[in-house]
Design brief:
This protein folds into 2 domains: 105 residues, Elongation Factor Tu (Ef-tu), domain 3; 119 residues, Nucleotide-binding domain of ferredoxin-NADP reductase (FNR) module (Rossmann fold, 3-Layer(aba) Sandwich), CATH 3.40.50. Helix content is 21%, strand content 33%. The protein contains 6 helices and 12 strands. The strands form 2 sheets. It has a 7-stranded antiparallel β-sheet. It has a 5-stranded parallel β-sheet with strand order 10-9-8-11-12. The structure holds flavin-adenine dinucleotide. Flavin-adenine dinucleotide binds next to strand 4, strand 6, helix 2, helix 3 and strand 12.
Length: 249
């Protein structure tokens, strides 16, 4: 558990705030693996007498987007979805506000050689998609599909690697979260020539992730499980969705 304070707050898009957390306690923070996560503890004193269950209810899972070991600063990008402990905190965050960070954990190994990486994400996983993108072998082609609210939510996924994702806008189609990703998947599958060359990475709302996972595993030319990484980053109607929902059950 590391106690940090807010150093800067930047409104990146109408629904995303980039918050830099800093403090001497971040010295030695391990370099996160692609797709890794941290736990953020809101409002409870980690050294206080809060019961573990209560403390867990005040934790949320986020992506360590950048860590700068020279300044001990950790960047996190929050979706302002309007209804939750973390989202509300981020919407109101000001320089100097305290927060507690634990981790990093999780993340993935990227197999090499890798010809094509297909990423299907919603806005909650755009920071993680950026970390994966930056870890791909130089000759790997990324194909990235991002579902977001509207065209004002388009943004660069990385300041190092230039890519042109396909953007899907919910508001244009009056669609529920995840529907546009699900509907897009068959088009994508039709373009794949050799499934052995592709690693699929999907991170989004949990029910959407399950439906897309099942499409990939059950289609005629099924994707093999070891070429598929699926993550439920949040779940419609559920607070504090676990950080290890891989869609396997
Ligand atoms: C490995 C991992 C990495 C993640 N990285 C990031 C990240 O970098 N940035 C980020 O913004 N999120 C990230 N998430 C998702 C984040 O943990 C969840 O969105 C979390 O539920 C937010 O907590 P909250 O307190 O705001 O809402 P909660 O209290 O958990 O939920 C309250 C309500 O809001 C809904 N809700 C939660 N998240 C969303 C959403 N994104 N859109 C619409 N409705 C939502 C829930 O269904 C619930 O009804 C990550 C999740 C995982 C598992």
């Amino acid at each position: 558990m590391r106690q940090v304070t807010v150093q800067t707050v930047e409104q990146v898009t109408p629904r995303v705030r980039r918050i830099v957390l800093g403090g001497e306690t971040l010295a030695g923070f391990p370099a996160p693996r692609p797709g890794a996560h941290i736990k953020l503890l809101f409002g409870a004193d980690p050294n206080g007498s809060a019961e573990p269950k209560k403390m867990r209810s005040q934790m949320r899972t986020y992506t360590p987007r950048f860590f700068n070991p020279d300044t001990n600063e950790l960047t996190v990008e929050f979706v302002l979805h309007g209804n939750g402990l973390a989202s509300t905190w981020a919407a109101q965050a000001q320089v100097g506000d305290p927060l507690t960070v634990a981790g990093p954990g999780g993340g993935m190994d990227i197999p090499e050689p890798l010809k094509t990486m297909v990423m299907l994400v919603d806005e909650s996983a755009i920071p993680a998609a950026g970390t994966v993108l930056e870890a791909l072998p130089a000759d790997c082609t990324p194909i990235i599909i991002c579902e977001v609210e509207d065209d004002r939510e388009q943004r660069a996924l990385s300041s190092i690697i230039e890519v042109e994702p396909t953007w899907l806008f919910r508001q244009e189609k009056a669609a529920r979260p995840g529907l546009l990703l699900e509907n897009y998947l068959p088009n994508l599958l039709a373009t794949v020539k050799d499934f052995d060359d592709v690693l699929w990475w999907m991170a989004c709302e949990a029910n959407t992730m399950r439906r897309m996972r099942s499409q990939l595993l059950n289609q005629k030319e099924a994707v093999s499980k070891d070429r598929l990484v699926s993550r439920g980053y949040w779940k419609s109607g559920a607070s504090n969705h676990p950080d290890h929902d891989f869609g396997e059950s």
